[in-house]
Design a protein that fits this description.
The protein is an alpha+beta fold. It has helices at 2-20, 61-82, 97-103, 161-166, 200-220, 239-244, 262-268, 290-293; strands at residues 26-37, 88-94, 115-118, 128-133, 138-146, 172-179, 182-190, 225-231, 247-248, 259-260, 274-276, 279-281, 284-289, 301-302, 313-314, 335-336, 339-340, 350-355.
Length: 357
């Protein structure tokens, strides 16, 4: 009996210490270009006519509902892989808040209770960036929509002043809040298209705008952890990412005013999030500032998640991939040669994981 009470006393002493240990916490942060998630109604002032029932794509309610289901299916599949939903998911190529409100209540992902941060932007087609977040994991403190401007001291633009005045592109979304009481900021972007072949200066300017605003936040909130994500329309090795966003390939290269770009080593290793004319690229990039690379002990840091080597993940599954024909092996998109093929997106989503250990 004495032995029994001795063991019981030992357990009672040990339990408080076990309960006091800090539990490791991980969060998935990702980005997904939803490839023209349009509803079937015209938005005044937007060139969305091809995505109307009588438009070029004959975009009916049936097709729209299938598109919503497909997008939710991918988000759910990522949840199944990670065992948890994204805490933060940036998205692009969405027409308006309505399509997001209908997306987050799809049966596949409704239990995530995703909330939405979105602003209507000036893009002529009417596509915007937005951010989905889980309110049980992320506390929203503020957000704003940052317009694209040509006010640069370092970039020489190919556009004339008249062309600049007429230019319209997506705004950059800035969202600030806390995860487990740690301050974070997220930038979600869709930099200008490569159509025309002379827009590298525009993407460099978009990257410069993000960088300038991120540096201001780091001065205002010392220790803030910043994540930049988006469809950059550039690879990780292009000038916009390396020079204007100060993207570094390796963690030991990241200084206080640099960003770590985990997808730079990945694209060199042959990974890709989209393919064009048989060439793979990673335009869907997520970068983190130095505070997520070299954080204070016990706080969140980016962690390697692929082969214990790569810090980023390009998520692709057979159901998201074209299985036959000319584009076999590439992302199965919504439309192909003008026909609806009930696909997903022409981009694979990407994500990173942050952890306290």
């Amino acid at each position: 009996m004495k032995r029994f009470f001795s063991i019981l006393l030992s357990l009672l002493v040990l339990v408080p210490f076990a309960g006091a240990q800090k539990v490791q916490k991980s969060h998935v942060i990702g980005f997904y270009n939803l490839e023209n998630l349009f509803d079937t109604y015209h938005d005044e002032g937007k060139n969305d006519y091809e995505y109307l029932p009588d438009g070029a794509n004959q975009w009916t309610e049936v097709k729209y509902r299938k598109k919503l289901h497909n997008m939710a299916e991918v988000i759910r599949a990522m949840k199944e892989e990670n065992k948890v939903y994204h805490t933060i998911l940036g998205v692009s190529e969405i027409e308006n808040r309505n399509v997001l409100e209908e997306l987050v209540i799809q049966p596949e992902i409704a239990d995530a209770n995703f909330q939405i941060v979105h602003y209507d932007g000036p893009d002529r087609r009417g596509v915007d960036c937005a951010l989905l977040y889980r309110p049980d994991q992320f506390t929203l403190l503020g957000s704003r929509s940052i317009p694209f401007t040509f006010d640069s001291q370092s970039i020489k633009f190919s556009m004339t002043p008249e062309e600049q005045a007429d230019f319209r592109t997506r705004d950059i979304l800035e969202v600030r809040g806390t995860i487990d009481d740690e301050m974070f900021a997220f930038y979600v972007t869709h930099l200008p298209s490569r159509i025309g072949g002379k827009s590298g200066d525009l993407r460099s300017r978009g990257a410069e705008i993000i960088y300038e605003n991120a540096m201001k936040l780091m001065n205002e909130y010392p220790g803030i952890k910043i994540v930049v994500m988006g469809d950059m329309n550039d690879d990780p090795f292009n000038e916009s990412m390396v020079t204007y966003l100060h993207g570094k390939e390796n963690t030991d290269q990241v200084g206080p005013e640099d960003f770590f770009n985990p997808f730079l080593s990945m694209v060199k290793a042959g990974f890709g999030s989209l393919a064009y004319q048989g060439v793979w690229s990673i335009f869907d990039i997520i970068m983190v500032n130095s505070n997520l690379v070299n954080p204070e002990k016990g706080t969140f840091r980016i962690k390697p998640i692929v082969n214990k080597k790569f810090y980023g993940r390009v998520f692709q599954q057979p159901f998201m991939t074209q299985q036959e024909g000319q584009y076999k092996g590439t992302p199965k998109r919504t439309m192909s040669n003008g026909a609806f093929i009930n696909g997903y997106s022409d981009h694979y989503p990407t994500y990173i994981v942050i952890s306290t250990k």
